[in-house]
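Homework-ish question, so no full write-ups if that breaks the rules, but can someone show me the predicted structure for this set?
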Amino acid sequence: MNFLRKSLDELKKPFEKGKKLEKFAPAINAFDTFLFVPNHTTKKGAHIRDAVDLKRTMVTVIIALLPALIYGIYNTGYQYYSQTDESFTFLDAFIHGSWKVVPMIIVSYVVGLSIEFGFAVYRGHEVNEGYLVTGLLIPMIMPVDIPLWMVAVSTAFAVLIAKEAFGGTGMNILNPALTARAFAFFAYPTYMSGNKVWVSEASNVDAISGETILGTLAAGGKVSYSMFEMFKGAIPGSIAETSTLWVAVGALILIFTGVGSWRIITGGILGAIVMGLLFNLWGANALMNFSWMNHLVVGGFAFGIVFMATDPVSGAQTNKGKWIYGILVGIFCIMIRVFNPAYPEGVMLAILLMNVFAPTIDHYVVNGNIKKRKKRWALAQELKTV
Amino acid sequence: MDIIKGIRTQRGAKLNIKGSAEKILSKNISSPTYALNPDDFFGTVPKLLVKEGTVVNAGDPVFFSKQDPRIKIVSPVSGTIKEIERGPKRKIEKIIIEANQSKEVRSHVVSNWEGLNRNELISLLLESGNWPFLKQRPYGTLANPDEIPKAIFVSTIDTSPLAPDYDFILKNSHKNFQQGINVLNKLVNQNVFLGMDATHTVSFEKFDNVQFYTIQGPHPAGNLSFHIQELTPINMGDRVWTINPEDIVNLGRFVTEGVFSPQRCVALAGNGLIRSRYFSTKIGVEIVSMIKEVKTTESSLRFINGDVLSGKTSSVNGYLGYYNNLISVIPEGNTYRIFGWLPFKDNSILSISNTSFSRLFNKKGFDINTNLNGEERALVVTGEMEKVFPLDLYPMQLLKACMIEDIEKMEALGIYEIVPEGFGLIDYANTSKIEAQDIIRKGIELMINEVG
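A: Not a homework solution, just the prediction itself:
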């Protein structure tokens, strides 16, 4: 460890203040602080600090994402093999999935991190860790057969327009990963919807039907999966969104560590249940008759509510606001699913919509506190004049 | 005894740190020099009354406040002004007084103090140098003698890490404490509020002329901002005064003996010390005079005037601050730590976050150091500040308002109700390593300059 430290210090010398490569210090610092927590001590304010920092927080989210990701990789292979009637093992499916998914992850990280590093050097601040999560989320919510260049373009769009244009990490209004998906969704609709994109190789091999459950319902078809299959996630869909089971494991990690807001997650589930029940009562078509319990386990609802809606930057920031925000995400998600068959997956649009309204929700929550203060003051003035 | 309110909160955190002071008192610690630091009086611009070489008696004024020349800060000891240390822009940093053995002190006529009216009493306190014991809210500056506050607040419970035990500090001064309370009562007309630990009220409940309330909860439950908001919240234009418990004793001693009393009982604590304990001494004493009585653990230490969350950095050659009953000594933490970003790694570091198991271990207390444990980042995580902030206001929104210097918003969000110290735990707990106290202090300075 000492040797490593010494060689790093040696390596960093040209990047020190006043040296030739000073401008590029944020880039080398990002690598250094990835290995070592720096020896910085407190200069002002509290003299001691908690062990938690943004790196640790973001890595916790990544750990929470891993179960869903691993299952998603497996499911990619599973969907392919189970429809082609080949015999296969878990490993076969996993390897098939890895060949598809890992390149997407690499593309997303390389493109996104290059832009992040570029902006850090340009603006002269340290590289923020937010992209570690975004970069993993982007491939996880894409259809498996999307060309890599589209992943690259969507990623670049999301990082540049949704994040850096607003000032970088902590300043963005929309969730960057969802923006990447929304961009791809509207720019390349043939690769992002329909019945040929959700299972690996579906567009090349005729035997494979890659329709999602929500797609089938929107087209008026019959769903052939049991609720347990939907919950387990052995269904077609975006790479890592299908398994409610493993998303739930991730949710538990987020809630236990306090990194993800349990208020948003609970609120979202409640909102979806209420909306699902209302539609069940109405029951005018196949989508409305789709049981509220099934609504919770199909599509990207679970993944969206756990990993995207809980983004602290683009979501509501006050505790009361988080409840309202979560409930509305749930309500709108089911509503969009049912009312608009062109967008069978409502959760993406519901979260983006609520991202836009989150500051408004917070504004009214905080205003409640402000009003209380003003009322108190007015009352005191009255007492004084009496 | 009537308790007017029992204040409880869950929000906050008890930081279990090694090295609280043992209840052993070393008496009459003195040092060759003493110092006054004008920075201890927030918002006060000092105007000197002495030069290097001036001979002063204990109780002689050393400097006064530019804002109100009647407010004088007096020398705690008799001696000669040895040095006036100046910083950038000739700002006065320290006035060092070399003590001599002279028994001469400046005394005041106090035999008739009970017969004085409010204004006469205020003049006496101003003239004798007792006034700086009183601070005001909003802002935490020195009290303005021309104003009548709604109330005076005293908290006999300090919930901060390694906090001194006021029960122990005041043990032998109950008579003077009561006398001091009587003085305060003349200033606010029976509105002196005294906060006690809800689990231990015995030693204070016998006092008269005060309104008792109790506090229960983790730090920062003991902070006065919280008590004031719960009992008589500060609106725009309101004034509330605050005073430290030991300064009430000093006031009481003054009206009994007629001489300014600079007594301080100081807890020396922290995991940088081997045997920590209490010392009875005077304001402005050299820190080293106490350090040499105990042993330190290592060479690279930080000496803090106050607690580890909101105290001021000093050094082993530094001096005890004007208001401090605690000097914390903790090791510096300028070391590297490999892969520190892994959750649940390094559980020996005190953490209140659930990304560490540290709370499950180390029931005996944590060894702490001054490492930042990360680097400053943009504000990302939400909700963590509210968890450690008991006041009914939105801390993150207030911080943001201070950052963008939006005075109207700062007012609306409650800048009048807080002082920087209340944000100490937010400094500690926030993921992005935001310097909340510094931001709030700058916000308050802006308020003082723009609104007054």
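Now go work out the reasoning yourself. Hint: Chain A has two domains: 1-49, 54-369.
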